[in-house]
Amino acid sequence: VLGDSVMSVLAYQDMNRITLYDMLKNEIEDTSNFTVEGFHYPGFHFGVFYTVLQFLVNTEKLPSIIILPINIRSFSPQWNMNPDYQYEKIIQKINSYLDSIQVSDDGLYGIDKEITYSKFIEYQSLYYRGIRELNSKFISWVNRRPLDENEFSKRYKEIFKWHYMYSLTKDNRKFLLLKKIIQIMKIQDTKILLYITPINYRAGAKYAGDDFIRALNRNLQLIKDYLNEDISANIHFCDFSKTLPETSFTHLNDTTEHLNENGRKLLASLILEKIKTLY
Fold first, then answer.
1. What's the number of CA atoms in the CB half-sphere (13 Å) around residue 68?
2. Which tens digit of pLDDT belongs to each residue from 240-257?
3. pTM higher than 0.90, yes or no?
């Protein structure tokens, strides 16, 4: 099981303190002969996942089934260009081993070592309807303490925009890494479940309006179109992006994908329903 913070985050008010990863692990191990292992951490992305899968392929340690989320926010300038979310050391460490067994590949593919915090805040991205915005604008809204209801709503609008309303393109480095993952995995003797992580789309539409859904759908469609073109029999895909209500997230206005107890149970059941058809 690969993943990011969605696999481990708990809501403050949760009575049930079992993570999404442990829900999956417990149920799969209780209903099959499989042993479940996880490699997940906040901010992990396709650069990390690609390198881990390269390791598994080249050491002949591929599991029978791999669960891999596609977090639509991971393509965004908030995550993709954040120097804190590059994880070069982990990638370099794995690639050092791959080099030692003479596996040739671009060891830091998708990782820009030139990213600094100053470049991150001044990075300009294209958003829905062709608007270009600097990261610094959105960072200021994240750090702002609203003085009234209008500022409260405006703050959420801008954060949802930063996270999900960017214009995803085929040359996005995380999109290119997703393509590389598909290329190496479709020729392997293992099954892989790709699913799009649920997002708090109702809250996004509440604060950012109908354009939020239009922008989200455009980005989702780019991913789906590629997978429909290049998917193989051993790769299975599910879109869970709009399956959960706002009551499933850590709070009603949550601008990330973090789930409360009820949300984790719902997502676990969706994943398990699909996984059980694979074993």
1. 23
2. 999 999 999 999 999 999
3. yes
